[in-house]
Every structure is written in structure tokens, then in C-alpha cells.
């Protein structure tokens, strides 16, 4: 454990008894940027499902998925406050900066989690409620409390939590799970490692200081770069499955091929870029990966509407 | 002095902090009202025409 980390842990044990967090701080606890991608992919899962869902029910389902995702983010921020305080990217978050107490974040996360799951069960159906509960549990307990600090495969396995929203959306609309949402799950699951590792390359010093075993920390930059390229190729193959299995058309397939081709090319360029420019290319890869996933999930419903 | 008796750092409630707290309480109230409205709306959708057809 580094000296900085030790000092931070000691500092965090000093009681800060009064919660002076503003509404904006509590919204920040829910990681709104991550939440927006969750909402979007869940919405696509819901739209792609067969049959029509009443718009009011659809709005309720998406809202509850968003709230559940936000609650799990609050639990993550509660547990990770010690390492967040060490890393430049996260040290201004509400808990490490002292604007929200750790107890405040925990209470908020638990209440909102319970409320979102129970409401999902009452308003929508039990299957989507169970999936939402599992997602919150997987992210807050399996990923945050167990995987993140123990294994370099943390974000690979933990990525399952971020990949579940389209499955929940589908389950909300149909009260069932079939192969299509599982393919959407696989797309996000295989997208997560190259996306996160590109960021981890840039923030390597931070993760090292915080003692988080991200792949660049444990296995080095070279190994991380080859894993990024490997996952980019696998992801390309997985994004072709909706066309291969016959539930998306040529419009989706050609769009996904172009976008995936660019992503593979970017990852290859990153792998062969020298140390001097590596962070810049890693930043581009990280930014493009968000754009790539977003467009893939735009292509799916657009293809369905066009019926090509 | 033992750990338990150590005085905790008191927050001085400045005007700005009080304003923020009031704002937080207002937003929480709005969120709760919106949640109640959503529950009501979903109930109406679920009951559908049965609201009119129920035995009196």
C-alpha cells in the first residue's frame, strides 16, 4: 500500500458527522453520465422487444432502471471513497471531497435501490425486478466490493452489470428473456474491456497509487494493448451476430461493420503507437468507443424500423 | 481523551449551506410527488377499462 493511500484511509476514518451535500451532489452520486448510457441501452432493449408496450409503462420501466443504476452507483461511491480520494479523476466526487458523508451515500444508495426494485416488481413485472436487483447486487457487491480490488479481470467480469440494462428493458416489455437481448448483453460485455483499458492506460499512475489492480498495473502496457486488440476483434464478431442470426438486417450489418472496422483499426494503431503519443491515441480510442456503442444501439432500432 | 469522547467537527450553517439544504428538500419533495404521480398513472393504465366496469 502506498503512503498516500494509507494517509487517505486514515483521513477518511475521521468522522464527518454532518451531511452538507446539495441536491447536485446527490445527483452526482448517481453518476448521471453512466446512467445516460444505461437508460439508452435499456430503451433499445425495450424498443427491440416484440409487441407494443403502453408508453406510460415504458416510461416507468426506463425511469426505474435509471434510478436503480443510479442507486448502485451511489453504493459504489460509498465503498470506493478511499480509492476515489487518491485518484485525480475521482477525488472531487461528493464522498471523498466531504460534501456527502459516507453514511449519507450508503443510506441513499440502499433506500433508492430498494425503492426501484420494489416499484419495478409492482409496476412492471417480477422478472425485470429480479434482473434489476441482480444488476445492482452485481455492481455494488460483486464488482465494487470484491472484484475491483482483487483481480485484473475486475472490469471484464464486472462488465456484466453494465451489459444487463437492455436485457432488463426487454424483460420489462415481454416478461421473458430470449436470444436477442442476450446478444445485446454480449455486445456491451465485450465492448467494456477495450473501453475501460484505454482509460486505464491514461490513468495508470492513478490506479497504481490507489492500489487498484487494473490490467496495465498488473500485467503492463504491452499485455494490455494486445488484450485491447483481441477484445476489439471479438467485439467485431459479436456485433455481427444480430445479422448472422437473422434478427437484424443489412442496414445494421453494414453500419456495424464500418463502425467496428474503425474501432479495430484504432485499437491496432494504439497497439503500435510509441510511448510518446500513446495517451493521446488511448484518449481517442476511449472517446470513440463511447460513440461506437451509442451508434450500434442506434442502428438496431433504426434497422428494425426500416425493415431491410 | 478516548476516541469516543473526541469532539466531532461541527458544521457552521452559513446562509449558503441553509439555502442549499432548502433546495435539496424541495427537490426531494418534487421527486416524491412525481413518484406518487407515476404510481397513480401506472395504476390507471393497468386497470384500464375495468375502472368503469367495476361492480358498484
SSE topology sketch:
The complex is a heterodimer of chains A (308) and B (56).
Chain A: H1 3-12, H2 23-29, H3 32-48, H4 55-79, H5 81-84, H6 102-123, H7 126-147, H8 154-163, H9 165-174, H10 179-202, H11 204-209, H12 215-239, H13 241-244, H14 250-272, H15 275-306
Chain B: H1 15-47, H2 50-53
Keywords:
heterodimer, A: 308 residues, mainly alpha, Tetracycline Repressor, domain 2, 0% strand, flat, disordered N terminus, B: 56 residues, 2 helices, 66% helix
Structure commentary:
The complex is a heterodimer of chains A (308) and B (56). By secondary structure, chain A is mostly helical. Chain A has helices at residues 3-12, 23-29, 32-48, 55-79, 81-84, 102-123, 126-147, 154-163, 165-174, 179-202, 204-209, 215-239, 241-244, 250-272, 275-306. Chain A has 15 helices and no strands. In chain A, α9 runs antiparallel to α10 (179-202) and α14 packs antiparallel against α15 (275-306). The radius of gyration of chain A is 20 Å and the shape is flat. The relative contact order of chain A is 0.11. Chain B has a domain at 16-46. Chain B has 2 helices and no strands. Chain A binds chain B through residues 15-18, 20-23, 26, 54, 56-57, 59-60, 63, 119, 123, and chain B through 8-11, 17, 20-21, 23-24, 27-28, 35, 38-39, 41-42, 45.
